[in-house]
Write a structure and sequence with these properties.
Layout (H helix, E strand, L loop, with lengths): L1 H11 L1 H38 L5 E6 L5 H13 L3 E11 L6 E3 L2 E2 L7 E6 L8 E2 L12 E4 L1 H7 L6 E5 L4 E11 L10 E6 L1 H8 L5 E10 L2 H10 L6 E4 H9 L2 H29 L1
Amino acid sequence: MYLKFLKNDLRRKRIMNTILLIFVCLSSMFIASGINNIHTIMSATDKFIAKSEFPDSYIIYFDKTNSNQQKNKFQNFLNTDKDIKSVKQGEAVGVPSNDNIYLNDKKLTGDFSADFIFGSVESTMLNLFQEDGSLLEKVNDGEIFLSPSFANIIGAKIGDKLEIRTENYQKTFTVVGKNRDIVFGVPTVTIQRAIISENDYSDLANSETVAKYKFVGINTDNLDRLNGKISELDFSILVNYGKAIINTVYYLELVIAGVFLVVSLVLVIISFVILRFTISFTI
């Protein structure tokens, strides 16, 4: 009976029902797109972590906040603790102020909430990737790679000139590409890292006005126990990232996909309500 009424209604109100059909189809496409985005982000994050060789524990600390005695004690802990399977260490340097960075000969302006640090492929400790997904293995002298979020924050494009000017260092770099950085390449992270050549990094790191960041990557079979031991050390740590935290950082991007999915579902519900009203009105 309802099928007969539906056929009659479709014949009588073709324009309205055609629009309604298009409305339902578009809403269904939005739902499929939202579900696909959520699945892609969740699976891609795990793959990104694996390909980047992200450790079980990723520690960041300032070199100057700990005494030599504290650093020696920490290194001894890394070398001798039985819960530690392997250790990698790296570093980067932070330019003291945004006032020391120039883009195309113009000083950066604006209220930047991000701190800008600079490292090399050799000093990062993790695998970095280019935009096409290939491994970033080398950066030539005078060139610089920015993460997409770093580039967006300062408004940089490929071919732009980025200059660092400090009291003891001055160098102009050409932006030649964008790199994927699992730790410092997300807009929600307050530290953004640029990658320069090893020679340029050594020159910058040896200047007296930069702040040096240290990275320690630890692999372990008992992360909770290891973190407990680290917290008991007399050692100042900036952050201690685990894989779960990295997943959480990237899962924040699911919020947009989730909102998109909810709106699509609401549109579909509205479509069926209108369709039911149309059928009832016809009867």
